[in-house]
Amino acid sequence: VSQLDPAHRSNIFCIRGSNEEHTQRVFAALRAAGIFVSLRDGNLRVSPHLYNDEDDIDAMLRVLQSSHPARRT
Predict the structure, then answer these.
(1) 23-26 long-range contacts, CB within 8 A, separation 24+
(2) Which residues touch 25 (CB under 8 Å, ≥6 apart)?
(3) Quick one: pLDDT band at residue 35, thresholds 50, 70, 90?
(4) Which residues pair with 15 in a beta bridge?
(5) Among candidates 53, 23, 22, which has minimal Cα distance to 38?
(6) 3-state secondary structure 21-60
(7) N or C: fewer beta carbons within 10 Å in the chain?
(8) Higher pLDDT, 6 or 61
(9) Under 8 Å between Cβ of 27 and 44
(10) pLDDT per residue as tens digits for the range 20-31
């Protein structure tokens, strides 16, 4: 969802699921895993910070991958 144009890039980015219900499920899964993101205008707002490290990003990616609709049975 976030702009990829270099002039508009930011350390804060937004992503969304395949639909609103999926986005809500991903939001809940991230929160349950202790990964704090915001839900804004139907998008997940992610704002990694100085205090986040590679392990934090890997944890978020694991939740995102496990929440992908193609991976659900």
Answers:
(1) 25/67, 26/63, 26/64, 26/67
(2) 17, 67
(3) very high
(4) 44
(5) 23
(6) HHHHHHHHHHHHCCCCCEEECCEEEECCCCCCCHHHHHHH
(7) C
(8) 61
(9) yes
(10) 999 999 999 999
